[in-house]
Amino acid sequence: MNTEELKRRFAAGERYFPAVNLSRNKLIGAYLPGINLWGCDLSGANLAKAKLWGADLSRANLAKANLTRANLSGVKLNEANLRGAKLNYAKLYGANLTGAYYDDSTRFSRGFDPISQNMQKV
After folding, report:
1. Mind telling me which SUPFAM superfamilies this protein's record contains (predicted)?
2. CATH C-level class of 1-122
3. What are the φ/ψ torsions at residue 46 (nearest 5 degrees)?
4. I need a labelling partner for 36 at 20 to 30 A (CA). Which of 30, 42, 73, 120 fits?
């Protein structure tokens, strides 16, 4: 699936896209609140400034994804792979990060504490 197809189907009312491959896709500023991308591959994708509040990204592969300034409020990121992801200035209010994986190359906003969010360092 490519970015244009995803946006078209989302605009038509579809919300459930489990395990799709969107690696290295550009979704800059995408408006996708409430989308279900459970287990999908978003590795290396550019989601800067994307509006994803209330989305389900559980078990998604977001390794090296750019989520700078993305709105991830209320997003489910349970067991997501965030190794090397850029989360600078991302809005994470009410997000569930339990079991999400991160490493030394993952970038968070200043003051963000992954341990208090029950994340796992690998």
Report:
1. Pentapeptide repeat-like
2. mainly beta
3. -105, 105
4. 120
